[in-house]
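queue> holo job accepted (HT7)
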Amino acid sequence: PVSVKLEDYTPYPFEIDSVSLDFSLELEATRVRTKMSVRRVRPGEFVLDGEGLTLNDISIDGSPLQVSDYKIADNKLTIADVPDTFTLETDVTINPKANTALSGLYVSAGRFCSQCEATGFRRITYWPDRPDVMSRFHVRIDADKATYPILLSNGTPGKAGDLPGGRHFAEWDDPHPKPSYLFALCAGDYDVWRDSFTTMNGDHVDLGVYVDKGQADRAEWAMESLKASMKWDEERFGRAYDLGVFNIVAVRDFNFGAMENKGLNIFNSAYVLASPDSATDADFEAIESIVGHEYFHNWTGNRITCRDWFQLCLKEGLTVFRDQEFSSDLRSRPVQRIKDVMRLRARQFAEDGGPLAHPVRPQAYGSIDNLYTATVYEKGAELIRALTVLIGDDAFNKGMQIYFDEYDGTASTIEDFYSCFEKASGKDLSQFRLWYAQAGTPEVTVVEEWDEAKSELTLTLSQKTPPTPKQDKKKPVPIPLRAALLDGKGGHVEAEGWQDGETVIVLDKAEKTVKVNLSKGSARPLLSINREFSAPVRVRRDLDKAGLLKLAAAETDPFNIWDCFQSLAKTEIFRLLDEPQSPPDDALVSAMADAVRLNESDPAFAALLTVLPDVGELFQDREPADPAGLDSARKRLRKAFAEALAGDITRILEQPSPTPFKPSAEQAGTRALRGAMIGLTGALGTPEAASQLKSHFDSASNMTESLACLRSLIPLPGKARDEAIETFYARWKDNPLVIDKWFAVQAGQGTAEDARRLSEHPDFDMSNPNRVRSVAAAFSMTNLAAFHAPDGKGHEVIADIIQRADKLNPALAARLLTSFEQWKKLEPKARASAKTVLERLQEAGLSKNAMDIVTRALD
Ligand code: HT7
Ligand code: ZN
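queue> job finished
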């Protein structure tokens, strides 16, 4: 496939200071009239992007152009001879109703909405659709008044009024120059949850969350989250909102989580709508974090945008870092850190270790939609976090202020961003930028040597990054490792040059030796390293089971306590896989259970201690990988763990669930531990367990526990399970977001036949990404034992769904295809089946997006 290369970047030859867009909305024939003021700033051709547009008229300075004056080819309109300053007017027709790709202007539930990032604007009108062309937008929308009483766009509202024939119009002005990918338009009949916010500068902002009719009260949490985000960005980064209006619109059909369009965020309704009975704590938490994420883009993405799409991590990695910090400040920092690392290891480490691995800032791409990856987002955020450790919080905060002040209103690069931190810290960060150019997860090996006579600990640290596609050789990167010396009694040991027994070791060479001098006669301390997961690396240490248990008991960093138990559980699962006749290690299981009990006063943390590494993560350390074998070894350990906690399960579940329901971190923590106990009840797998789960399901007062019971019942065939599936469906059949969960819990634990049956259910809807993902992504990304079953049936069912989805929505199909990314690591039978299926898909002639993934996966 043709690829776009970073090295080919050239600035656009023209500036377009302002643009007027005039929309006449009709479902199948919307008219878009565009008037732009163009000014040449450097030599070069005048070329506009345009895709699927019917051109009705085109003129320069009021004179219509003849067909011979311009050329339309390969989705580009080129006008050979243009004056240095001119006004270009175009008039095009588009068909939003036929737009199933959900990019550009489309229709969801009878209402108009748009998605322009990355290249959707060119499906609306002719335009230089690249992020470094920034313009002031004036928008006028006219539409039938009865069907579309609310007409929204970016900025602040202007004139509005009635028109003949039952139509009306509204105008919107955005004073901030912006790239086309931040343009948005929504039109339809909505209910609105309204509120307001006064900024730190005393400016009044009208806030609105627009949702389906009758759903306004389900928008309250999104609104609370928005106000909390606005306040947090003022307090933490000194950044206030800059318009008099901020609106959020919820749509059911959306390819992603949400979109940060200037002043008019558009959200997947899954990340807006929540009520205590229908949403889980995870839903409330996700809404808070995504509302925050999109709001934070106002400064990191909108006011300072990206020069080109290779710089995507500049806005995404930084904004993920900001939303993680927001959640940490509002909830529990250690719990947030553990959840973020779980996500990173599950998604980004897997990506980095497979054929789709790419640097955080890639050098080339085949299809821009496929650049929205865990590496760009999650690893991008980790690099910002590692930077804070490397230069310290003060220099980081100072650097951020320099960035906001110096680059406001510009389309910037990673180099621009890092120049601010070089200024703030006085450090040369050129080696740190290597992190952006190299794919792969570095492996850090730590070897310790203790000299009793000298009371000296010698640490030999080394790093190695495995080869990734098209990048065989890797250079050392600076790895900031937070470290502490533990005394084994809950405290730290002082050492020369360390502060309260803590320091940051920067491993910036292939190998480095660090001498740690303790006061004479000191006992050997235990080393705590990569505390709080200060760098996105894999750490290899020469610690056996007893050593890890001792370290877990001595640790003062909650992240590392959790991580010690993860390592212990992983090793034990591998042992159980290799020794199928051997029972789980009693001593280990009771240590795991003790850790849960010991931390019960922090129930959210205790709940995380019950989660064993999932098959996807185990998979990364076993080649060839046998997902079914790993799954059954994992289940054996989990069953023993549940048996060790049997008394605690009963005790915890006998206590009442907190009432009245609040989505607070405190209540969510209590429910998380209760949910964990429900999960472990299922792991016991006994008939009594099924009936206990069913009675808990029947009496559950909130969705978190109700869904946890259903999830636990799914693998336990029988009447209790069947009744729970039916009751849940009957109760929630009119709530699509809850029915998505109903599909997902079944696909996430069923067989390939179950996944096929669900994909044939009358409520399965190929045109709705949430519903497709609730079956296809839940099955292929969370149920690896069934997806990669050696008979190949799992691969086939997903390939069939992908092929059907691709005809409607290539971005969705491409994302689902990434579930095959680990295929080369599979045991021979599943590997052969995956290869056959990928080759069949390649032969089938898929979309450009889907072909990009298939080709790279097979490479
Ligand atoms: N910046 C937004 C990205 C996005 C997107 C990208 C490709 C196709 C559809 C999309 N919808 C939204 C989301 C974000 O990171 O905030
Ligand atoms: Zn984002």
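queue> Residues 293, 297, 316, 319 surround zinc ion (ligand 2) (CB under 6 Å).
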